[in-house]
């Protein structure tokens, strides 16, 4: 499971089967990154990990990069209870009853991930990630072995949302693209470039159709209705319509040269939000340049990765 976000190996049936001491010692010798579930965190913030064959322990100082230096808070350890964690085996000991116990390091797994994977990333690289928690300003994701990065809210999709939970949920697998790399090595991510251009999204709609959408913005000059995460149309103003409602909308016209879709709201109503599977247009490789707007459109919306 080299350098995957925590949980992906177990979720896809690639977790390691810890059968015997010989297998564990072989993994220790090769510094292989393993994954298993943390079953508890003791009073000293050591993580106890279920290895099946035996118990493993991740000492607090080995729980994450930055713990020992004080730049990472202990919540990074505590919050892993009942979740998969990445680690390497560093040794073996015995408990008070003489039972074997594996000594583990999540920090070392993160160091290997940073040195051998994250350090090789370049702007435009498309990577796998897992959403870990959502804040009003963006979605934090695990990009490998529990190492966090942020997708800012304005980089999640072209269609504006009020909170990342409108698009993601914690634990969700997703793809992201490396937007830039800071001087300190931090990875800055984006997401909207993987969801297709205006033309690609608009190709699924035609004038005369009535389709579903979500009210994303209510302005005095009209109402923006999201048709897909990277496509919104403008409807004529209507009373008693508010952000977050579902809607059925009639498509008056599709205008590529103006990058506009004109709508009429047929009905708007409250409904439980449904997070449909994300339809990605790009899932691998490297993007050098991405242009959202149609070629003949006067307004140009684009991203250059460098």
TrEMBL record:
Which terms does the record give in the GO molecular function aspect?
Answer: mRNA binding; structural constituent of ribosome
A single GO BP annotation from the record? translation
Task: Return the SUPFAM superfamilies for the record.
Answer: Nucleic acid-binding proteins
Enumerate the PROSITE patterns for this protein.
S1 (PS50126)
Enumerate the UniProt keywords alphabetically.
Ribonucleoprotein, Ribosomal protein
Domain S1 motif intervals: 124-192, 208-239
The GO cellular component terms are:
ribonucleoprotein complex; ribosome
Gene3D superfamilies reported for this sequence: Nucleic acid-binding proteins (2.40.50.140)
**What PANTHER family does its record include?**
30S RIBOSOMAL PROTEIN S1, SMALL RIBOSOMAL SUBUNIT PROTEIN BS1C
As for family, the record states: Belongs to the bacterial ribosomal protein bS1 family.
* Name of the molecule in the record: S1 RNA binding domain protein
């Amino acid at each position: 499971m080299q350098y995957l976000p925590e949980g992906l190996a177990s979720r896809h049936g690639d977790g390691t089967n810890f059968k015997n001491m010989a297998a564990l010692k072989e993994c220790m010798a090769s510094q292989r990154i393993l994954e298993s579930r943390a079953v508890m965190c003791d009073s000293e913030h050591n993580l106890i990990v279920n290895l099946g064959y035996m118990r493993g322990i991740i000492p607090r100082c080995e729980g994450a990069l930055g713990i020992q230096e004080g730049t990472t808070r202990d919540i990074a350890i505590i919050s892993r209870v009942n979740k998969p964690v990445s680690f390497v085996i560093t040794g073996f000991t015995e408990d008070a009853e003489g039972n074997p116990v594996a000594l583990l390091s999540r920090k070392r797994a993160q160091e290997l991930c940073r040195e051998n994977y994250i350090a090789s990333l370049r702007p435009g690289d498309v990577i796998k990630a897992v959403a870990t928690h959502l804040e009003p300003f963006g979605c934090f994701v695990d990009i490998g072995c529990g190492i966090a990065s942020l997708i800012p809210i304005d980089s999640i999709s072209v269609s504006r949302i009020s909170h990342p939970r409108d698009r993601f949920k914690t634990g969700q697998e997703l793809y992201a693209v490396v937007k830039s790399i800071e001087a300190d090595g931090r990875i800055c991510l984006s997401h909207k470039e993987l969801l297709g251009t205006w033309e690609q999204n608009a190709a699924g709609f035609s004038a005369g159709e009535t389709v579903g959408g979500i009210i994303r913005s209510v302005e005095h000059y009209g109402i923006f209705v999201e048709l897909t995460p990277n496509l919104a149309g403008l409807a004529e103003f209507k009373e008693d319509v508010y952000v977050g409602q579902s809607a059925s909308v009639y498509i008056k016209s599709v205008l590529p040269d103006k990058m506009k879709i004109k709508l009429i709201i047929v009905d708007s109503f409250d409904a439980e939000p449904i997070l449909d599977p994300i339809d990605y247009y790009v899932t691998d490789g490297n993007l050098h340049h991405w242009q959202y707007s149609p070629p003949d459109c006067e307004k140009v919306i684009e991203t250059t990765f460098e």
